[in-house]
Specification:
Layout (H helix, E strand, L loop, with lengths): L7 E4 L9 H14 L17 H11 L11 H24 L8 H11 L3 E4 L4 H9 L10 E2 L12 H9 L7 E5 L2 H10 L2 E4 L12 E3 L8 H7 L4
Parallel strand pairs: 1-2, 1-4, 2-3, 4-5, 5-6
Helix pairs in contact: 1-3, 2-3, 3-5
């Protein structure tokens, strides 16, 4: 018996639909260098797939490599975090605004869902300014039901809030929705919300787990694959 289609498909943006994870890494590397830190693979779990505030906190935390280099008071630290977050956002926005290529298979998959009448939305941990720039650029013409950014929920990924909010906006049970993700934090967010997850890893590996289906590329994904995700134990 054929598995019913998902109530909705909830797409991550960076590294999933558009190839922006490399741009984000370049941004973090440049900002880190300005703070006196050389970004390495050891920093990746705190940078890739993370919200701006999380990455800013990590960069402030590792600046100089010892406690004497950190801001001395809570107010100083808050100001440093705000400056670093703003620098990350502004630099990343400029890179994205200059053009971010779609991931292989993204355009065909989105078009096929639209043709089949399956609703889909964008659920991102990027700031609203970046989401809007990508939607107006690389994803122009894609008929998302709505887009969610890091600014639209109290907590962003890896917390469940973004995917729970998206399911609520579709008036759907999260368990009837499929989230498409590339990162450990995004996958954790979708898991915690109760969604089935299709993982298409980009820069960081994602561990296998209950309710997770894996694909090497969106080129391998169609409505049948997404529907089958709902059956995975």
């Amino acid at each position: 018996m054929r598995t019913p289609a998902p109530a909705a498909v909830l797409f991550d943006m960076d590294g999933t639909l558009v190839d922006t994870e490399v741009l984000w890494w370049e941004t973090a590397r440049e900002v880190a260098a300005g703070l006196g830190h050389r970004l390495t693979d050891a920093d990746a779990p705190e940078v890739v797939g993370r919200a701006v505030a999380d990455t800013a906190a990590h960069l402030i935390g590792v600046t100089g490599g010892d406690a004497s280099a950190l801001p001395s008071t809570a107010d100083d630290r808050a100001a440093a975090l705000a400056r670093t977050a703003a620098e990350l956002t502004d630099s990343f926005f400029r890179k994205v605004d200059a053009g971010a290529p779609l991931r292989p298979g993204a355009a065909a998959l989105l078009a096929s869902l639209e043709g089949a009448g399956v609703p889909f939305a964008l659920v991102s941990a990027s700031p609203r300014s970046v989401v809007d720039a990508v939607v107006a650029g690389s994803l122009a013409g894609v008929d998302f039901a709505f887009t969610l950014s890091a600014d639209d929920t109290v907590r962003t990924k890896p917390h469940p809030d973004p995917y729970r909010t998206a399911a609520e906006r579709f008036a759907a049970d999260p368990a009837a929705c499929v989230a498409v993700e590339d990162s450990p934090d995004g996958t954790a967010s979708a898991d915690a919300a109760g969604c089935a997850v299709l993982v298409v890893p980009s820069l960081l590996p994602v561990a296998p787990g209950r309710g997770r289906t894996f694909a090497r590329s969106l080129e391998e994904v169609d409505l049948g694959v997404l529907s089958d995700c709902l059956r995975r134990p």
